[in-house]
Specification:
Shape: elongated
Radius of gyration: 19 Å
Order of helices and strands: HHHHH
Largest sheet: none
Helix content: 55-70%
């Protein structure tokens, strides 16, 4: 399929994107924002699928989409973006755990305030709308 992230983990990340799309992005109060970013999700999925597999993504897809598959339909565009976000977040978390990221200077008069801000910035989850 010529898709570099077509692995089991990459596929799970993509499918989780569909779940969160329905849960969060297509809620009534966010639907217009979704459409502004990704397009009208009510367009025919079947027609988009046939068009994509018969004609491909087009020559300039890299200028507007995160993957060739994202060009297929707005719902796939969201799922691809979400899957790549999870991939990037996992990569950064792994790099941090292995000590591969530059560490800030924690000395000085504001060290405890900066440490608290760092904890607050990393204490979140997708499932918590307040987090």
């Amino acid at each position: 399929m010529d898709e570099p992230y077509r692995t089991v983990l990459g596929h799970f990340r993509h499918e989780i994107g569909h779940y969160y799309c329905e849960l969060l992005a297509l809620s009534t109060d966010r639907r217009e924002d979704f459409r502004a970013l990704f397009g009208d999700e009510t367009t025919s999925y079947e027609e988009a699928l046939q068009r994509h597999y018969s004609g491909g993504a087009g020559r300039d897809w890299q200028d507007r989409f995160i993957s060739a598959y994202a060009t297929m339909h707005p719902l796939e565009d969201f799922a691809e973006v979400f899957g790549h976000f999870l991939h990037i977040a996992d990569t950064l978390q792994t790099a941090a755990e292995l000590g591969l990221l530059p560490q800030p200077d924690h000395s000085g008069p504001d060290a405890s305030a900066r440490a608290g801000a760092r904890r607050e910035a990393t204490d979140w989850s997708f499932g918590d709308p307040n987090g």
